[in-house]
Amino acid sequence: MVQSFRLDGVGLIKRDKKLSFKFNGKIYYGYEGDTLASALIANGIHLVGRSFKYHRPRGFFGAGVDEPYAIVQLFRNGETEPNIKATEQELFEGLEASSVNCWPSVNFDIGAINNFLKIFLPAGFYYKTFMWPKSFWYKIYEPLIRKAAGLGTVSTSHDKERYEHKYEYCDLLIAGSGPSGLASAYAAAKNGARVILAEDKSRFGGTLLTNDVNIGNKSGKEWAEGIISELKEMPNVIVKNRSQVFGYYDHNMLVMTERISDHLPITKKFHPKQRLWYIRAQEVLISSGSIERPLVFGNNDTPGVMLSSAAKEYLKVYGVLVGKKPLIFTNNDSGYETAIEFKKNGIDPVILDTRKNPQSEIVDEAKHLKINIKFSYVVVAAKGYKKVKSADIAQISDDKEQLGKLENVKCDCICVSGFWTPTIHLASQSGNKTTFDENIDAFVPGISKQNERTLGAANGEYRLSETLKNSFETGYELSKKITNNDNKVSFPNVLEKKSTVHDKFWCVPLPKGKNYKRFLDFQNDVAVSDIEIALKEGYRSIEHVKRYTTLGMATDQGKTSNLNGLQLVSKIENKVVPAVGHTTFRPPYTPVSIGAIVGREIGKHSKPTRKSPMHSWHEKNNAVFVDAGVWLRPRYYKRGNENLFEGSKREAKNVRRNVGVCDVTTLGKIDIKGPDAAELLNRVYTNAWLKLPIGKARYGVMLREDGIVMDDGTTTRISENHYHMTTTTAQAANVLSHLEYYLQLVWPELNVNVVSTTEQWAGAAIAGPKSRDLLQKLFPNFDVSNEGLPFMGYMEGELFGVKARIFRISFSGELAYEVNVESDNGNFMWEKIMEIGKELKIQPYGTEALSTLRIEMGHVAGSELDGRTIPYDNSLEGLVSKKKDFIGKRSLSKKAFSADDRQKIVGVIPLDKKTSIPEGSHLVKDSKASLPNPKLGYISASCWSVEHDNPFSLAILKDGKNMIGKKLFVMSPLKNKIIPVEIVSSHYVDPKGERARS
Amino acid sequence: MLYINCPHCGLRSQNEFSYGGDATVKRPDLNKEISDQDWDNFVYNRKSLRGKHWELWQHISGCRQWIKVERDTSTHEIFNTLKANEETI
């Protein structure tokens, strides 16, 4: 297909690199350096989508970030992405894109019937229309609206691309590489400041690429290229294109997305698709420029109506004509510049100027070029449905209220210029109090809250010479303040055409008898009439008007619509614009992909998975893993076709009968040293710690200040002033912070140091009646007899030349030991245990068997110490010292905590001794009582008792101590189960604890 | 993201710290009689101030020290930071 709207020899595209791409299934051609938008326009394509509400045809309105219309679905490298602006997406070979929000096709869209029903779709129509009958919302209205009103489809498959985060620091962050950005960056960099210069587009230079200016005897574009290539060579400067600074946060933290691979057919190896930069800047210079404002007239959303600056950019950057019979509609001199560019390229434009008799160099040049200019003229309405075919124009009276006779002129595009709106988003996000500038009818930054300044057009300064002067000066001053250097660069000569004042006129009145839609917000189909209705209905605050009418919402966030909306509200309300105020600017300035926000924090828990040093052994031996916090632990070791129930039962049985080994590396470990270590333990734990002998371990429970159990574990006295504390896997980090809190803030007089050693030690629990035999074989030169290493004893040994710590502690209730070696030796230890234990019929056991063993012994764990229970509830009152004070003790005397019928841990057995009891079930007295059935307690943990060969559960039950022997019902509405049960002691196996002491 | 001046390490970003509540709360001495009301105030009752506020942060991914930070809860401005053993003004 021929690119019939492409000019020869104009533009910055690479003509030797022809690219093919597909839009809505059809193949087209463009060049490297095109955007999808410029390539489509070059092929004469102007219909790219349908509008959100009325499904009216949509074309292109801008040429960049402000684009409200041309949002497409992109297909790239087997992935699909919605919400892509065609004006931002760079063309690459094989690009595929399609229109959104139209069905079945962009040319024939059934939803366009809304356009004829628009009388029924006024402002707030969702709130008014779809409210009754209520039940219709979920089943009928919502699915239909979702289908009709979307901006694309999100892929449901895993994103294969890689996204990265980067932290950076600089003296000066400069957002935008137009004239002010380049000048300030250059001045500051030459003075030794560390500078980051960020440009959203692929090309640096901003308006210098399209404006006819001369700086230091070079064209604007050449001057920009010179500055950029010099900056790129400097070691103190980071220059980034395709990088949007989208958020300004507290303490001068700014966030930027760098689109590294979006413009390539596939991402290069080892490259991310996008990178998110967190930049902490000493000073920020905002040089984000300005966006042209539309003029409002009838059917001003017809494809072919676009900003005049966009038309100029398509022409000068891409060598593309947006039309061959252009009508320029302007209230200021900018429209003339576009007209002049058309004329220079052999196209005859017509200018309609709302002003009566403007005098300026630019107007003179247009007159000199013999461009047809009609003063005091307006476009009343665009004609044509899928593309502008002509325009109804008319003369307008000096008071701008009366229209003359309508005339129809043929045209294929209407380029509008309603003057310029500074892009103040970043300044406003930073907390800057913006002010309204009467001269330009727009808000500009005012008093800064953080270290930021706004330069150039973003600050309402549209003269290039002034902009460059201020920017050189500011870059120099700020860098001098930071670096104390004094290298000033010389200021270049600037030649630019002088312009005159704009006309404050922005909205064309309706001619008599006509009811054209005059759109303010092009993305959300908000017309003048919608705002009028909202105000009539009593909405006053601009924030409410925005939410009711959707003015300025959605992906473009009203970049082209906000100011005209404000002008309208202020006109109807008879207020000045600053009294109406603007809605809050919030980050992000442009849409940011979720992938970039997430970065590498993906996968399980969005964190790296922690594995014990024995992990690969577990893997090789058919371990089925389970998440334990951020750790992976073997749940059971699968043999043949065994399921979890069978496998864990086998492993638990083997512990009770022979000997088993369990990886307990994940337990939290804290090394405690110092002369006051015992005193610290005595204050942190509920039981007494001052008299623990060296070489002995003790079980302890610690509380929060509110009396709730925080954690439990054993602590061992290694030497005089050295203790080894263990915590549960889940609470390890919290317990360390807890200890540090008391040592640093509450009792700084205690001479103690604590440090986490969780990852320094690998741990193996050896449990079962044959565990001592095994231990003796592992440590043949050490006395591990009941006398040599008694219950709760500790000794240091040597495991075939490897230093080991041996603790005689038991979680399973059996005779048991825990052996710790340095992490690097973990696998060696494990393999030795398995090798030597073979003749004793050793089997490894996982967390499921571990749970079974502790549940039937009545040992509490995380499911009982769940942040809701006090020591009494867990039958741990024997560990609560009456003599000494400790953290949380005072809370235990609370009335509720000492009530007679306080909840307490009990055992639960189903009467049929067969039915497993679901964890989390409730205990009730009467299974048939009317709802809500009073809940007496809940099942905290369940297992199949391998000792008794029937189900057994632990429960926290109201008045538990008086309930032993009673019969209750377990109810689980989730599992639809009602099970008659008997309440028994929580110690179901070896209640006196003889085995562990044997 | 806040920029907190750790008195031990210097300026660090907020994501290295964890928040620890009101820095002006004093734990009652051990082994001392205390009324239900006073204990309740210590454990549960906190003012939710708007404006300047001394609060605790722990430099959890850095030096692991608890520090005191004077911050405006509405503007996030930080005025002062102190070590754990320094008294707030």
Strand content of chain B: 35-45%
Per CATH, the architecture of the largest domain in chain A is 3-Layer(bba) Sandwich
Helix content of chain A: 10-25%
| Helical proportion of chain B, percent range | under 10%
Shape descriptor of chain B: globular
For the record, what CATH class of chain B applies?
Alpha Beta
Quickly name the level 1 CATH class of the largest domain in chain A.
Alpha Beta
Q: What is the H/E string of chain B?
A: EEEHEEE
Radius of gyration of chain B, taken over Cα atoms and rounded to an integer in Å: 14 Å
What is the 3D form of chain A?
elongated
N-to-C span of chain A: 91 Å
The beta-strand count of chain A equals 50
Low-confidence region ranges of chain B: none
Structural class of chain A: alpha+beta
Can you give a write-up of this model?
The complex is a heterodimer of chains A (998) and B (89). In chain A, 23% of the residues lie in helices and 28% in strands. In chain A, strands 8, 9, 12, 13, 14, 15 and 28 form a 7-stranded mixed β-sheet that branches. In chain A, strands 41-42-43-40-34-44 form a 6-stranded mixed β-sheet. The longest helix of chain A has 20 residues, at 464-483. Chain B has 89 residues and is mainly β. Chain B has one helix at residues 36-43, and strands at residues 3-6, 10-13, 18-22, 52-58, 66-72, 78-83. In chain B, the strands form 2 sheets. Chain B has a 4-stranded antiparallel β-sheet with strand order 3-4-5-6, with no helix packed on it. In chain B, a hairpin with a 3-residue loop joins strand 1 and strand 2. The longest helix of chain B is centred in the middle third of the chain and has 8 residues, at 36-43. The interface between A and B is medium-sized, with 26 and 27 residues.
